[in-house]
Design brief:
Rossmann fold; five-stranded mixed beta sheet; globular; single chain; 11 helices; 11 strands; alpha/beta; six-stranded mixed beta sheet; about 280 residues
Length: about 280
């Protein structure tokens, strides 16, 4: 998907009540102490703790958070590999906006987006694109597929930014994902697929670079009960069986029941529905 298409998708989302600071710590760089130092500084400056969201994706980061800021934040969740987090709240409360902010697709009115103490909003657009492409998979609410392209061509869109679409291994990777999700590959255009099939193409595209974190915006909202349950089970498998950290924005009670942690967003304030650490 082009950056223009992503921007258009974001612009359609209402900003909703202001959550001033979103902070996300991912795995692997050992910078959690820097992150917690910044969090403590924010709270000392008077930032409302209910407007700070911190997601930790490793047990080591969770331990650092627990030792230093556990009782000061209204919403922080430990998401080790294999965790499935639901973001809930009334329509218009800013759930989708929060998801896009976490991914660096949207600049919040105030605050920062930090991954391993790396402020991704301070980077160039192209640098953010490269970071996002290999770090996060995103499933948009309306899929954002190009209907005139085939399912295979849609899955290959992320590779097109790196001019890799003609590579045999790259094409095989895209084809294997479509096969895994039982998407008919003989269709000439994606427009001829059912909504459930289009959702599975969007999932395959999001997983193309095998990201450790997957974000899904209302992944079952436009599907019937059978297709919605199939997507719910797929998301659960992607987290528990494959060790991904999966974050979903949803109103779906069935999908919420499969999630190990829940964060509610209401009137610009965050509330954690389940505080204990999720076991991988």
């Amino acid at each position: 998907m082009s950056r223009a298409a992503e921007a258009a998708a974001v612009q359609r989302q209402a900003l909703g009540p202001d959550v001033s600071v979103w902070v996300s710590a991912s795995a692997g760089t050992g910078k959690t102490k820097v992150l917690t130092d910044r969090l403590l500084a924010l709270m000392l400056d008077g930032t409302d703790p209910a407007r700070i969201l911190c997601l930790t994706f490793t047990r080591a980061a969770a331990a650092e958070m627990a030792n230093r800021v556990n009782d000061r934040l209204a919403a922080w969740a430990t998401l080790p590999p294999g965790a499935l987090l639901a973001v809930t709240g009334p329509s218009g409360s800013g759930k989708s906006t929060l998801l896009y902010a976490i991914a660096g697709l949207l600049r919040p009115q105030r605050g920062n987006i930090l991954w391993d103490a790396r402020n991704i909003l301070a980077e160039t657009e192209s640098a953010r694109d490269r970071w996002r492409r290999h770090s996060i998979g995103i499933v948009f609410q309306d899929f954002h597929l190009l209907p005139e392209l085939t399912p295979l061509q849609n899955v290959l869109l992320p590779a097109s930014f790196e001019r890799l679409t003609t590579d045999r291994a790259i094409r095989a990777r895209a084809g294997s994902l479509l096969e895994r999700f039982a998407v008919p590959q003989g269709r000439r255009t994606t427009a001829t697929l059912s909504r459930g099939e289009q959702q599975r193409v969007a999932l395959a595209r999001a997983l193309f670079y095998d990201p450790p974190v997957l974000l899904a915006d209302e992944p079952t909202a436009s599907l019937d009960a059978v297709a919605g349950l199939a997507v719910t089970r797929t998301l659960a498998e992607l987290s528990t069986d494959e060790g991904r950290s999966v974050i979903v924005v949803t109103h779906d009670a069935v999908l919420i029941s499969h999630c190990s942690t829940r964060i509610a967003l209401e009137h610009g304030r965050l509330r954690l529905g389940q505080r204990e650490e999720v076991s991988a």
